[in-house]
Write a structure and sequence with these properties.
By secondary structure, the chain is mostly helical. 79% of the residues lie in helices and 0% in strands. It contains twelve helices and no strands. The longest helix is centred in the N-terminal third of the chain and has 19 residues.
């Protein structure tokens, strides 16, 4: 197998350090020189790929940013932090195809990952896989103390006719954030379905 000489390692380290310093200093010219250096030497390192991806995002070039994240993930087989960042971007951008791929990676690393299960549940819900969405949301709310996670599970339970549990889950969302309006809507719907009309009006 080919080996990298000690001298080459020093050159690579210099290139990475230079690019990071240039990026943090906002040195556009220095950054581009470092990027050119790295590509000219046919090197790809997750650190500079992620930095370049963030630069693409600042320019609203989301697809190109995600392409860079894809390459960084390939270079970092255990890089769940990189995959999580990419998944959040894909989730916000509505890129379900990429999101599914990132979630498969994250859940292969940790099947109980709360955020990945929340995102998976949301994707499943929008595909109409209500039972699967419920399972994913249940894993998420065990550790994810966020109102929208609890409320999404509550709404799935309303759809499935589990109104009492839906009410409890909506209350859980409101305990986390009393100003979270969607949970008030879910709570009112659950109360109506339970025949508690006066309480629903008050909600």
């Amino acid at each position: 197998a080919a080996r990298v000489s000690r001298g080459a390692c020093h050159v690579v380290a210099w290139g990475i350090d230079r690019e990071l310093v240039a990026s943090e200093a906002g040195d556009e010219e220095g950054w581009l020189q470092s990027l050119t250096f790295m590509y000219a030497n046919r090197l790809e390192w997750p650190s500079f790929l992620v930095i370049e991806a963030k630069r693409m995002l600042q320019a609203y070039r989301v697809s190109e940013a995600l392409d860079l994240y894809d390459r960084a993930i390939i270079l970092t087989p255990q890089g769940s932090a990189i995959a999580r960042a990419a998944a959040r971007i894909a989730f916000a951008a509505g890129d379900m195809e990429r999101l599914d791929r990132y979630l498969v990676f994250l859940l292969s690393q940790d099947p109980s990952d709360p955020w990945a299960n929340y995102a998976l549940g949301t994707a499943q819900f929008h595909r109409g896989d209500i039972d699967m969405a419920e399972s994913s949301y249940r894993v998420a709310v065990d550790d994810l103390d966020l109102p929208f996670a609890a409320n999404n599970l509550a709404w799935v339970l309303v759809i499935q006719g589990e109104y009492q549990e839906a009410l409890s889950m909506a209350d859980r969302a409101l305990n986390i954030d009393p100003s979270f309006a969607p949970a008030w809507d879910t709570r009112g719907t659950a109360l109506l379905r339970l025949g508690r009309t006066d309480e629903a009006k008050a909600a």
